[in-house]
Design a protein that fits this description.
255 residues, 9 strands
């Protein structure tokens, strides 16, 4: 879909929210599009890491509120909308590959949920963040709130959700909402994504599941054991041992 673009270079896929004229606001169809795209990237062995960003000067100003009169006009439709939001963001969070969000300009509301679904958040020094749910009488969803709580802690999560106040990149970094601040966050993210792309995909996917599921209280021991056992029986484990013994870089295949 043209509202979400996907490119790939040297094992790094870049997913770009492509509505710059509307500050990359996200439509109902785009939430479902994120799910399809990230499910596909998760299964694509040629992709080793992913960058999520926005076209133009912003990451995303959040949901396209101009749709709400139709898409969220009653309780039933509002529930359908939240299912689509959670599906799209869950696909990012559960993507087997490391995901780095690069935040330029505004990251607001649903845009914050997208960013929080990534493993890492790199921001420009001029970036602005916020969750304006309290200005719209919307209760931020359970999945998004869990992610916010895991990142910033209880008191800061309350401050962000109760007040709807925007905060700058310096404060976002201080409270743990983002990981890296610079004037060239995309260049830094590309360098980091490239470094991650050289490492063992099964290690990253297994660690991602265990860390995220424990942090969000969704841990499944059987799934964790299957990931651990799968890595132990993999080609990549053998390749890693051989490469270490032969003092050469390993050529991991993700299998």
């Amino acid at each position: 879909m043209t509202d979400i673009l996907v490119t790939q270079n040297d094992g790094v896929a870049t997913v770009t929210i492509n509505r710059p004229e509307l500050r990359n606001s996200v439509t109902f169809d785009m939430w479902n599009g994120f799910a399809d795209i990230f499910d596909g990237l998760s299964a694509d062995k040629s992709v080793r890491s992913v960058i999520l960003t926005g076209a133009g000067s912003d990451f995303s100003a959040g949901a396209d509120i101009s749709e709400f009169g139709n898409i969220r006009e009653n309780l039933e439709k509002a529930k359908e909308y939240e299912v689509a939001v959670d599906r799209g963001c869950a696909a990012i969070m559960h993507c087997a590959k490391p995901v780095i969000a690069v935040n330029l300009g505004y990251t607001l509301g649903g845009g914050a949920h997208l960013a929080m679904s990534a493993d890492f958040r790199y921001a420009h020094t001029d970036a602005k963040f916020g969750i304006p749910a309290a200005n719209l009488s919307i209760v931020y969803g359970v999945q998004a709130t869990r992610k916010l709580l895991a990142l910033v802690g209880l008191t800061e999560a309350k401050r962000i959700l109760y007040s709807a106040q925007r905060f700058n990149a310096e404060h976002a970094h201080k409270i743990g909402f983002i990981d890296h601040v610079s004037e060239a966050p995309m260049a830094a993210a590309i360098e980091f994504a490239g470094a991650l792309a050289a490492k063992a995909p099964l290690t990253q996917g297994g660690a991602k599941y265990i860390l995220n599921s424990v942090a969000l209280q969704e841990f499944d021991a059987k799934k964790a054991d299957a990931l651990i056992d799968g890595a132990a029986a993999s080609f990549d484990y053998s390749e890693g041992r051989n490469a270490f013994a032969e003092k050469r870089p390993p050529a991991f295949r993700g299998e």
